[in-house]
Amino acid sequence: MRSCRLFWGPEQTALSPSAAERGYAVFDFETTGLSWAEGDRVVQVAVVHLSSEGLFESEWESLVNPQRGITSTEIHGITEELVASAPTFPQVWPRLLSAFNNRIVVAHNASFDLGFLWSELARFNPPADLPRLPVFDTLRLAHLVEGAPNRRQRSLAATLGIDPLAKPGRGPHDALTDAHVASDILRHYLNEWPHLVNKGIRTFPGGGTMLKSANRTTIGTGAEKPFPERVI
Predict the structure, then answer these.
(1) pLDDT of 16
(2) Which end of the chain is less crowded, N or C, counting CB atoms within 10 A of the terminal residue's CB?
């Protein structure tokens, strides 16, 4: 795994009471390709809100116009025609930030999604007072799922009896479907190992630290890659 020291805090995060009480924001991105460092962009975002006990509360999903071509349509089925009239990332960012507000942010292989988040924010340079997000990566406890052949989300889902086709969205590799699957995986962890979930929460620094570091990277050149590529 590539170094993430500037952006993915190695220390355990001390949660604010509001974040612990308000629950989780489980999110997923679909993208034009697999490498933000080579200029790939977000084409779909979805967030599922769970209570602190893991109960479903709400969901939100949007297509995103990446303002470039899409090379991974065969993975997620999203075409350039579908996103032609969709909002751009700067237009959906306020809604996404609001969805993260005072919640523990969750994703599977979170470094991939946070890498794209970092890349998108660096492009339009939002205000420097971004929050420090408490993040839990469901990949962290995947090795504890007995019988799972690997730590991929679809393998964990199959082992745990989670059917992506029964979830909202268009199926596997749809952001809304994948966010719901990650929510079910998180719910399993909360039932089995709640103390390990709390111990596994780390910080995604916002504000000047992220932007100062982001501005040292030329997006789209592959010059610097502090986040790993996706685990499909």
Answers:
(1) 55
(2) N
